[in-house]
Specification:
binds S-adenosylmethionine, 13-stranded mixed sheet, 10 helices, binds iron/sulfur cluster, alpha/beta, TIM Barrel
């Protein structure tokens, strides 16, 4: 396994397939976002070559993200290509769900195992205010299609923004009473220059739990409080589904971080919220050998920063979330 100099095993790679998106979520990108040209982005062959190299170094878990990964025209061959790489144990995706109604079965057939689908509210009007597109019904049908295609467990990601969708927290939680789904509440991370959202609009895990308990009574903590990925899991007593809380701002989980990111333009990003990156695309296009790339990756991972400084008001300025791959 590639180790960083703090001894963390970096075996989980999130690959951004594209920075482009069919939504414009207020916490992620501005309405007039400009996307990169095709020439600036990794080709499918470059994505697969780098994934091979990462896997040869011990990376065994891959998540495809973006931007919106389902917009990539080659997503199906990319999934089946990654699945066939020796050492890769799981391939999942993070998606806004807009295209899942028509793609969920094809994605599962290509070898995709799971999908985390973003759903910030159960209210179509609020959906438009947060996601800036009128796609609520499509996303809902996409969630059902993912479930029918066996992309399980269904995990829904909700980023909560005070003044926009915080009133909907009880309705999102209620989905776990009706479905065997995981609803994961994510603290909004402020990204410099991306939006005009303010730190006071972050709704902390503690606050979200308080709101849910006011409505449904005391929550039951699961797994003795151990993290499931980046979430701490709870349940409304008797509910078939589960609630996850991701406290990136109020209680960062950097000590347990096992991940690195590959941006759509071929940069190895060591921490979501730090600007350190290693350009892999330029050397690859300059005919670097696999061994040279492996060395650059190993050195980059070794120097992975300990963690982020959101609590101290340190916000990364060089890229939006959609460019990095959340
Ligand atoms: N387009 C896909 C989607 O929305 O699921 C994948 C890319 S998106 C950047 C990945 C995840 O990052 C989503 O769950 C999204 O809600 C989350 N995200 C985006 N901006 C965020 C922010 N400022 N703070 C916290 N989470 C954010
Ligand atoms: Fe697009 Fe995902 Fe960013 Fe929303 S969070 S704008 S769906 S990339």
């Amino acid at each position: 396994m590639p180790l960083d100099h703090f001894g963390r095993n970096i075996h989980y790679l999130r690959i951004s397939l594209t920075d482009a998106c069919n939504l414009r979520c207020v916490y992620c990108m501005p309405e007039n976002m400009e996307f990169r040209s095709k020439a600036e982005l990794m080709t499918s062959a470059e994505i697969l070559r780098l994934t091979h190299i990462f896997a040869s170094m011990g990376v065994d878990k891959i998540r495809l993200t973006g931007g919106e990964p389902t917009l990539h025209p080659d997503i199906l061959p990319i999934i089946s290509g990654i699945k066939s790489i020796p050492g890769v144990r799981s391939v999942s995706i993070t998606t806004n769900g807009v295209l899942l109604e028509k793609m969920a079965h094809q994605l599962a057939d290509a070898g995709l195992e799971r999908a985390n689908i973003s759903l910030d509210t159960t209210d179509p009007t609020e959906f438009f205010q947060i996601n800036r597109r009128d796609s609520y019904d499509k996303v809902w049908r996409g969630i059902l299609a993912a479930e029918a295609a066996g992309l399980l467990p269904v995990k829904l990601n909700a980023v909560i923004v005070r003044g926009l969708n915080d009133k909907n927290i009880p309705n999102l939680a209620k989905l776990t009473l009706e479905h065997d789904w995981q609803i994961r509440f994510i603290e909004m991370m402020p990204f410099g220059g991306t939006t005009e959202l303010q730190t006071h609009q972050v709704v902390t895990t503690q606050e979200a739990i308080h709101i849910i308990e006011n409505q449904y009574g005391l929550l039951e903590i699961l797994n003795n409080g151990a993290m499931d990925g980046e979430a701490v899991m709870y349940r409304i007593p008797g509910a078939p589904g589960k609630l996850g809380f991701i406290s990136s701002v109020s209680k960062p989980f950097c000590a347990y971080c096992t991940r690195a990111r590959l941006t759509a333009d071929g940069r190895l990003r060591l921490c979501l919220l730090r600007e350190n990156e290693v350009d892999l695309l330029s050397p690859m296009r300059d005919s670097a050998a696999d061994e040279d790339l492996r060395k650059m990756i190993a050195e980059g991972i070794w120097g992975k920063p300990w963690g982020h400084g959101l609590a101290k008001g340190e916000v990364p300025l060089n890229r939006t979330m959609s460019e990095i791959g959340g």
